[in-house]
Description:
Elements: H1 12-22, E1 29-30, H2 47-59, H3 72-83, E2 92-98, H4 99-114, E3 120-124, H5 128-136, E4 141-145, E5 147-148, E6 153-154, H6 156-163, E7 171-175, H7 188-201, E8 204-209, H8 218-231, E9 235-240, E10 252-258, H9 262-279, H10 286-296, H11 298-330, H12 336-340, E11 345-347, H13 352-362, E12 364-365, E13 371-373, H14 382-391
Parallel strand pairs: 1-12, 3-4, 3-7, 7-8, 8-9
Antiparallel strand pairs: 2-10, 5-6, 9-10, 11-13
Helix pairs in contact: 2-10, 2-11, 3-10, 4-5, 7-8, 10-11, 11-14, 13-14
Amino acid sequence: MLSNxxxxxxxxxxxxxxxxxxxxRENKIDLGxxxxxxxxxxxxxxxxxxxxxxxxxxxxxxxxxxxxxxEPAYLEAMTSLVLGNSIGNDxxxxxxxxxxxxxxxxxxxxxxxxxxxxSVWISAPSWPNHRSIVTYLGxxxxxxxxxxxxxxxxxxxxxxxxxxxxxxxxxxVLHGCCHNPxxxxxxxxxxxELSDLVLKKGLIPIVDIAYQGFGxxxxxxxxxxxxxxxxxxxxxxxxxxxxxxxxxxxxxGLLIAVAPDSATKALAQxxxxxxxRQNYSFPPDHGARLVSMILxxxxxxxxxxxxxxxxxxxxxxxxxxxxxxxxxxxxxxxxAFIGAHRGMFSLLGATTxxxxxxxxxxxxxxxxxxxxxxxxxxxxxxxxxxxxxxDAGV
Length: 394
């Protein structure tokens, strides 16, 4: 049987990680892997998380199964963090998933159960796993225009024109904030126009919000999701705690289903439990406990929000530093988009050959589409990266 298996295409980022590890140069720079790093190049454990872990260690009395949809305290805390007071709880079903990826997977499973003939529209470009999961599930994948490679901003007109061709029942995967890989985001007015189109066309929005708090702030980053939820009767939201709580390895995510009424909410909630049972039964609990403890304790929540703010401001400062350094070197403002983008990523618009040239000459590692992780920079490495970008002719 096993000999009948076909080799699978390797993940580009996983390959990049290995290439970086194998590079013996001491001055190499990793801008590829999508994790936050501090000035020392470390993905730190947040102080609020450490405190919550100590509290949990002292108070936890059992390792028995939790609820199949997850602990109610976690579900309540996270739905509140994402949706705020935009809609009533009588319309919200939710389930804990293994990370944001698990939430995306479960959302697509839900769509496939409800709309057998649905196509899934994905931004061009998007996080590669979006298309990978859609294709694996055997669902038709379509692209909508999103990124303008000339301005390095959102091609909103193109986006709306693309989605005008979507059919009722189709799903649209949207990045709630901090678009991956481009870093270019819709403004709130554009989200309003998009919501109107989605409502008019009868589409199913799947909002992937993996970076809440990394852009403008917790409430600011969630504003588009909340606006859409207030205008559209049905939508799905895939949320992640990996980045904003720094608990990547704990695999802590959430799938929210917004329903038009309480009866449909109950049906959706039962289906979320069913899907959890088919895929992994009970979700991992440790990260969810920490999140619910932090969000439920005013002192811990304040400490966490301050740490998150420091991370966000660090990335913003690095953006400005790189943009300024490139302006000084090139005598041009064509890299101002880096300072305007938000989140961990920006898409430089470099060719594959230019990306390879920067890696070969300077030891700078980025994804082949020229996505850079701004959090992988430091004040020391910014001048080096700026010089490499300019020398490559980007």
